[in-house]
Amino acid sequence: MQALELSPPSSSPAIQELVDLANRFLDAAKAPATRKAYAADLRDYSEFCTMNGLSPFGPGGEVLSLYIAQLAGRGKKPSTIARRVAALATEYHARGFRETPAASFLVSEVLRGVKRTLGVAPEDRKDPLLLDDLQRIVAACPEKLIGIRDRALCLLGFALGSRRASLASIAVSDLALMSGEGMVVTIRRDKEDQEQLGRKVPVAFGAQPETCPIRWTAAWLDAANIVDMDGPLFRAVDRHGNVSTRPLDPGSIARILKKAARRSGMSEEKVAKLGGHSLRAGAATVAAINGANEREIAAITGHHSREVQRYIRDANLFRASAAGKLGL
Is residue 206 part of a domain? Predict the structure, then answer.
């Protein structure tokens, strides 16, 4: 993707320092993962245009419409196609276009037709981890260091309804025990908090010691002998029981959860449907089943309203329908 970059309006060293600082801020405007995805999208579009003798960044939406049709023909999901169009719209703006073909009527209608033809139902969505399965999983965690960590990770991740990246980024200093009431966890990094304002999430004491997220978080800190307040809460443990000083990689959380699920005797079919999002989705779903409203769920998980409504609809499928009133 063509980099946005300021040029110094003068040769003054002070101005050059400001230009360098402004360029760093420009670079930080999007998350590294977003920049990487956009760059890959641009390469794919450029290759399509080169192979077909097309000019990639001319006016009008004809070329972009053809690219959308090619993506649909390759079996790409509508959400993937929409993301690529968004990436290309950003590239058009970076190249100085005031109006981008991505916003043209032609492109919007082709996109609409793709959605109507292919459907927009989410595919491969991981299952929420509901309470019964969570209880079985943590009960099967061994009473050794890695088992204590896995139990604490599952229970706190569920209680916070957090994304895996947010869970992995929690530091010990982000935990604040409120005497007799519970614990407050400061989530400093979140996908929806691009400005890193942070938010505080309350965690209640569990009704049962075996599933209390506060008790097992404390047990993990004690067993791992973690005393550096600025260090990460959740860390890797090697086969010799050595605890890393670095935070868990967010991608490892799904693997930890799947391994813990297998220890509990969960079928491979169910294990395959678990992922890093399962704790977060499970928290929202269970809260909805237990009567929490949209605002209460969003206050814990940080979900947007539309996302919360989906979990509430799922929770109400049987509770609020005629399915359980047929007398069978």
Answer: yes
CA-based nearest residue to 278, from 159, 126, 150, 137:
126
CATH number of residue 142's parent domain = 1.10.443.10
So what's the pLDDT on residue 45?
Answer: 92
pLDDT for position 1:
46
Radius of gyration of the chain (CA): 24
Q: Considering the domain boundaries, does residue 16 fall inside one?
A: no
User: Which two three-digit tokens encode residue 216?
Assistant: 């097992």
Cα separation, 81 vs 89, in Å, equals 12
Contact 71, 81 (CB under 8 A): yes
Write the CB contacts of 114 (distance below 8 Å, at least 6 apart in sequence): 68, 72, 78, 81
- Hey, how many other C-beta atoms are within 10 angstroms of the C-beta on 320? 11
294-303: Cβ within 8 A, 24+ apart: 297/161, 299/201, 300/160, 300/161, 300/201, 300/202, 301/160, 301/161, 301/162, 302/161, 302/162, 302/187, 302/190, 302/192, 302/193, 302/199, 303/161
Instruction: Kindly state whether residues 274 and 151 are assigned to the same domain.
Output: yes
How many independent structural domains does the chain possess?
2
Q: What is the rounded distance in angstroms from the CA atom of residue 66 to the CA atom of residue 83?
A: 16
| CA dist 229 → 165, 189, 243, 323 (Å) | 19, 17, 15, 51
Q: Is 196 in a helix, a strand, or coil?
A: coil
What's the CA gap between 118 and 132, in Å, rounded?
35
User: What are the 10-residue block averages of pLDDT along the chain, 328 residues in total?
Assistant: 55 76 74 80 92 85 92 89 89 81 88 84 72 94 94 94 89 89 84 62 91 95 92 92 92 93 94 90 86 82 72 66 47
Residues 151 and 83 in one domain: no
* 194 and 309 both lie in a single domain: yes
Residue 196: what pLDDT? 54
* Domain extent for 113: 31-118
Give the pLDDT of residue 5: 57
Q: Which of 109, 105, 106, 71 is nearest to 87 (CA)?
A: 71
Q: Reduce the DSSP state of residue 104 to 3 states and report it.
A: coil
Are residues 52 and 187 located together in one domain of the fold? no
